[in-house]
Amino acid sequence: MSFKVTTLTATEQQFEADIRAATLRVFPWLPASGISHQTTFSFTFGHATITVDGLPKTSAHARADVLVSLRGSPLAMLELKRPGSGLTAEDEKQGLSYARVIYPSPPLVVVTDGTDTRILETHTGKPWKPATPSEETLERLFANSAAGAAANLKAAIGQLMGSDPDIWMQAVRETTRKAIAERSSDWNDRLSPFVEGFLLPRRVAKVSEVLLAHRQRLVMIEGAPLSGKSNALREVAALTATRTDLAVLYLDADAGLNLYESLASVLSDALEWPITADEARYWVRNLSRADGPALVLAIDNMGADCHDLRKDIEAVTSNQFGQGLLVLLAVDDAVASRLTKTRNGRGCRRRCRPASSRRAAWFGVMAPAVGRRREGR
Prior knowledge:
This protein is α/β, with parallel strands linked by helices. It has 2 domains: 3-163, Alpha-Beta Complex (tt1808, chain A); 166-360, Rossmann fold, CATH 3.40.50. It contains 10 helices and 14 strands. The protein has a 5-stranded mixed sheet, sandwiched between helices. The two termini are 36 Å apart.
């Protein structure tokens, strides 16, 4: 992993002064001329580049995430809270997680509200209390931080993916971009479902976007084989790429895995986040119950024989999960009639109750997908 400074404009003068004052208060024994800070920085999760805008939000308890450097090398992740707001364990976890995903990792995490200040070692998470603070003690801390970085990385990614929508939405969208890019080629490749740089707009994609924005738990795009259903999913991902309330994660049911195995596979590959199927289930369950944006699982090539996947989707669109997890399916019309029946065999389409009723979990919004001739999915 690597990091780079991405701050392009100056922050407010008072905020800059507060950061500077907090930094010098914590590190009075370091040369002031060698200390700098950045309120916007980036790091990588596997193939995904994630940008952190560290400026404080409007919430009374919001944090400002600031990367402090000493002579150009990361020194500390500074979590600067509003004066008098108090410090929490969550503030410490957030700062530690940012510090641990950056390479090279800053050896320290500083959490302060102007009154209370906590200084933690990045690689252990324990308070840093040197007998005599000096640049020499920092050098030793740098070495220890590098040695413990690998062991902390998985937990750090998990913390950020589960607690910060700005982080997980970027990561999910990059995972989808990578999956679509791997399935794209030029016009001469008839085996690839997507053509690079070519996408016909479809009404069904816009309708699906609207339904998802209204938190419909399960939306189904039904169409004949070769009618363009896969491209409709691709278009929904494109339509929602800049929304603040939805992020689409593309999954291919062709792999023959259950839902959580598929999630673990794509996230491990795209983000180098080595989670298990059980950990993936825990992740989406927590996201589903959190306030804020929704994760949309866009599942392609759903077949009638995907029994394990069907059971998983039935579960995630039930009351076991919250409104923050939505499912968008692309299925052949021959398969759709089987998927849209409840366990008692009765049909359940547009007028079914939403997934708050488990027996009515398999409802869908049926709209034909209009595609192009070469579409193979």
